[in-house]
Amino acid sequence: MSEIIVEVISENVKEKVHSEVVKLIENVIKELELNNVKIVEKSSTDGSVTLKYGIVPSPSIAINGVLMIIGEKPTKKEIKDLILRATLNI
How far apart are the C-alpha atoms of 34 and 46, rounded to whole Å? Predict the structure, then answer.
């Protein structure tokens, strides 16, 4: 099974909302018992992020290089649905 890359993009990776989103994703991964999902934390001011996605509001989430959540804190159900959908596309 191929690896699923979940990028959590925020202006500041140390902000509370960013940490909450990462924790939520970790919980969903654990709940789904997936071992092929990698979380990558990125700053929206990072040059590689702006080159790839443009300017994105915080927090945003990309899965396998596609922005899925832009500028809002997702619910657990949204994260679960997106990750499950990504497993079908591998």
Answer: 28
Q: What is the CATH number of the domain that holds 16?
A: 3.40.30.10
Q: CA geometry: angle at 84 spanning 60 and 80, to 5°? A: 55
User: Which pLDDT score, from 0 to 100, does residue 2 have?
Assistant: 87
Number of domains in the chain: 1
Helices 16-32 and 76-88 meet at what angle, rounded to 10?
50
Domain that holds residue 77: 4-88
Pairwise CA distance, residues 2 & 78, whole Å: 21
Taking the complete model, does pTM exceed 0.85, yes or no?
A: yes
